[in-house]
Design brief:
phosphoprotein, mainly beta
Length: 228
């Protein structure tokens, strides 16, 4: 008598002329028509994960390392018909549970910073390279620098590259280069240390990094170079 909308997951009883019929409608579980795919993401950018379900209106929960995620901070979650989307904002290389785009041309995450050094003292140049470089080397005036009694070069697993020069002398002025290379290309960061006679530090440009050795200023002219 009348029309009844049948819904999945419910049990219906039909009575007619002393006959009782039972009808149970079983919901067909949703399935993934297009599953998640691995993606590459450049650090600092956003990445959107998309999966397509067999039907719309299905509750979707996103998890990271087995923990449910919420629409807060780095995550944006949406449903568009049968598609479930999650956007991760400002992805970082240290983002556990995700692989960031490491197989790419190297780039500098951090470069040399302004510092002071005295004659016969120690100068430390440090930068951080991302992009999984296969080799990192330091040069002075285009010549490869190697470890010796005054120069010490170290490279850590997290991409931190350091050049330490001890017992500074006037001839340590010149162009210093940190060069990172892998199969996708290379990048170099140059610093020019030029001995100047002027003693008035206020005359130097504030937008250039400087290394001070005794009363002589070594002004650093920084420059990036990219190669494919």
């Amino acid at each position: 008598k009348g029309m009844v909308e049948l819904r999945s997951g419910r049990k219906y009883v039909i009575r007619q002329k002393g006959v009782v019929l039972s009808l149970t409608i079983t919901s067909v579980p949703a399935s993934f028509m297009v599953p998640l795919k691995s993606q590459e993401a450049e650090e600092g950018k956003s990445v959107t994960l998309v999966c397509e379900l067999s039907k719309a209106g299905v509750p979707v929960q996103w998890l990271k390392d087995g923990v449910a995620l919420t629409k807060e901070g780095k995550y944006e979650m949406n449903l568009e018909g049968k598609k479930a989307l999650m956007t991760i904002l400002n992805i970082q290389a240290a983002f556990k549970g995700y692989k960031t785009r490491k197989e790419m041309r190297p780039f500098f995450k951090e470069v040399f910073k302004t510092q002071n050094a005295d004659l016969h003292g120690t100068l430390t140049l440090k930068c951080t390279v991302e992009g999984k470089p296969s080799s990192v080397r330091w040069l002075k005036n285009g010549q490869h620098i190697t470890n010796d009694q005054r120069c010490r070069i170290t490279t850590t697993e997290n991409g931190e590259c350091t050049l330490v020069i001890k017992n500074l002398i006037d001839s340590d002025s010149g162009v210093y280069t940190c060069e990172a290379t892998n199969k996708f290309g290379s990048i170099s960061y140059n610093v020019r240390a030029v001995g100047l006679c002027c003693k008035n530090r206020s005359n130097y440009k504030t937008d250039l990094q400087s290394v001070w050795i005794s009363k002589t200023s070594y002004q650093l002219d920084q420059r990036f170079e990219y190669f494919r």
